[in-house]
Amino acid sequence: MMVIGAHSADFVWRAGGAIAVTTSDGGAASVIALSYGERGESGELWKQEGQTIERVKEIRGGEAERAAAALGAEFDCLDLGDYPLEIDGDALRTISDRIREFAPDVLITHTDTDPFNPDHPIASVAVARARSLAAGAGVQSAFATVNPPELFLFEPHQPELCNFTPTTFVDITPVIDKKLAAMGEMKAQNYLVTYYEQRADHRGNHARRSSGNAEIRQAEAFQRVTPQVVSAL
Predict the structure, then answer these.
(1) What is the pLDDT of residues 153-196, one digit of tens each?
(2) So where are the chain's domains?
(3) Which of 176, 228, 180, 186 is nearest to 207 (CA)?
(4) pLDDT per position as a tens digit, 136-148
(5) What does the angle CA 98 – CA 103 – CA 106 come to, to the nearest 5 degrees?
(6) CATH value of 2-224 in 3.30.230.10, 3.40.50.10320, 3.40.1210.10, 3.90.1520.10
(7) Are residues 148 and 100 in contact, defined by beta-carbon separation less than 8 angstroms?
(8) Which is it for strands 219-224 and 150-154: parallel, antiparallel or unpaired?
(9) For residues 195 and 111, what is the distance between their CA atoms, to the nearest angstrom?
(10) Which backbone phi and psi does 75 adopt, to 5 degrees?
(11) Which residues have a Cβ under 8 Å from the Cβ of 222 and sit 6 or more positions away?
(12) Disulfide check for 207: which of 52, 80, 165, 169 has CB 3.0–4.6 Å away?
């Protein structure tokens, strides 16, 4: 599993449980942040007198590394800057190369619409394009390609305004403690912990009703983009 977010904490809130499920089952997970979210996602840190961009990056990077470790994942940041996040040709090639190198079975990123966050749609478009470049056109190419990973979008903060329709629920009940531990590391945005703890409970309710499995207590919601290929229904 590979999760690519615009900012260093995006993976924790929206896919931390799915990551922990993957690694707990023996799978590998890689998290890529396109920026540290140093300008627009670090409100608590900017309350400190004399704060600097480089210090915020350092703190945010440490938080994300510890959170990823709690989930059993690797973390890296491309440090492309935020608010605005801008993806040029070199950055796009870098993202595509990272997808090729890790060759994930599943790739997760943002929705392509978010009226309250200017960086999330930019990340969504870039990741979708980088995925296509990494997979090529399905024929022999002049560059190395990977099997096209399944593409999912994680749930945005305000899904009803972001064209998000949940098509897949992941039961994170067995790993909720790991997600809570990871969220606890994100002190620069600690105001989001309660929201996403409650969201996991809400989606757990929806997953129970959809599946009939009364043992599900917490879940995460995702929207599948690529078609699912099966041998039978």
Answers:
(1) 999 999 999 999 999 999 999 999 999 999 999 999 999 999 99
(2) 2-224
(3) 176
(4) 866 666 778 999 9
(5) 105
(6) 3.40.50.10320
(7) no
(8) antiparallel
(9) 19
(10) -130, 140
(11) 15, 18, 108, 152, 153, 154, 155, 166, 167, 168, 169, 170
(12) 169
Half-sphere exposure of 75 (CA within 13 A, CB side): 27
Q: Record the pTM.
A: 0.96
Q: How far apart are CA 134 and CA 151, in angstroms?
A: 13
Amino acid at 177: D
**CB pairs under 8 A, 24+ apart, for 223-232?**
223/111, 223/152, 223/153, 223/155, 223/164, 223/165, 223/166, 223/167, 223/168, 224/150, 224/151, 224/152, 224/167, 224/168, 225/128, 225/151, 225/152, 225/153, 226/148, 226/150, 226/151, 228/150
**Residue 108 near residue 16 (C-beta atoms within 8 A):** no
Other Cβ atoms within 10 Å of 101 Cβ, number: 13
Contact criterion met (CB below 8 Å) for 4 and 108? yes
pLDDT surpassing 90 at residue 74: yes
Q: Is the dihedral of CA 108, 112, 117, 118 positive or negative?
A: positive
- Model confidence pLDDT, tens digit, residues 26-52: 999 999 999 999 999 998 999 999 999
Token pair 């409970």 is at which residue?
201
Pick left, alpha or beta for residue 193 (phi over 0 → left; psi -120 to 50 → alpha; otherwise beta). alpha
